[in-house]
Amino acid sequence: MKKMKFGIRRELILTALLGVILSLIAFTTSRNGGDGVVRDVRIIIENNADNHVLEEQDVFRLMQLDRENLTGASLHTLNLRSLEQRIRSNRWVEDADVYSDLKGNLFVEVNLRRAIARFIMPDGSGAFIAADGSVMPVPQRFAVRTVLITGPRSSQLMKMENIMQDEYGMKLLNLLQTLHGDEFWRAQIAQLEILPGGKIIMHPQVGNQIIEFGQPELAEQKLKKLSIFFTRILPTRGWNRYHRVNVEYENQIVAE
């Protein structure tokens, strides 16, 4: 009698284990879209409102596929990691994630880098700088408004993959991040001109003043002095009174 009970118990355990295995198989199949077929493709582009450099058709082009080829395709034959790598090949793309849901929808999430400055060369060529220092080509379609960077020294930086590869580039990036992160400075400063020795001349959005900023270091202290010039001196003395202001030296504001 005990042997019979033991045998029944073992069969119940085996049956339960088999049920668990079949459930896992069914769940895995459902995660890959039920029958493993792509029902729909959904492209999600983050940060596109700020940059607007990529659209859905651009993402399909990067994947080297189109919606018609993907819809109805077997998920088992798609190399999702390879698709992600193809999308990341675009310098504007910071990250990409491709996955499917229970209903067979294929999601393509693309996170774009955020541009904070743009190089402009005398011949009309240029590039953008991202918040992480990455140098990105000017896209075919773009609606990105940032501070402009000109001058002889900028051509050297534009050739890098990331301006943080250079000690000067690290200091410049800190200045650009400070300017971009402050609504007041985004509205005030239109252009940075980098001279051969590395000193920076700023050109404001309003007014004809030349701002001699010096090297891109001690940015917070220099901008604090420049803020005094914009908020206290110009409103009382007049916006066209001065043609030059220098904040390069410690504890000094020179205005002429």
Describe the protein's architecture and organization.
This protein has 9 helices and 12 strands. It has 256 residues and is an alpha/beta fold. It folds into 2 domains: 73 residues, Roll (Ubiquitin-like (UB roll)), CATH 3.10.20; 141 residues, Rossmann fold. The strands form 2 sheets. A 9-stranded mixed beta sheet has the order 6-5-4-7-8-9-10-11-12. A 3-stranded mixed beta sheet has the order 1-3-2. It is elongated. It starts with a helix and ends with a strand. 26% of the residues are buried. About 4% of the residues have low confidence.
Helix-strand pattern: HEHHHHEEEEEEHHHEEEHEE
Q: Any idea how many domains?
A: 2
CATH architecture of the largest domain: 3-Layer(aba) Sandwich
Termini separation: 108 Å
Radius of gyration: 29 Å
Helix fraction, binned, reads 25-40%
Q: Within the largest sheet, what's the order of strands?
A: 6-5-4-7-8-9-10-11-12
Low-confidence stretches: 25-34
Largest sheet data: 9 strands, mixed
Named CATH topology of the largest domain: Rossmann fold
Class based on secondary structure composition and strand pairing: alpha/beta
Number of helices: 9
In terms of DSSP E residues, the strand content is 15-25%
User: What's the pLDDT, averaged over the residues?
Assistant: 84
Principal-axis shape equals: elongated
CATH class of the largest domain: Alpha Beta
- Strands, count: 12
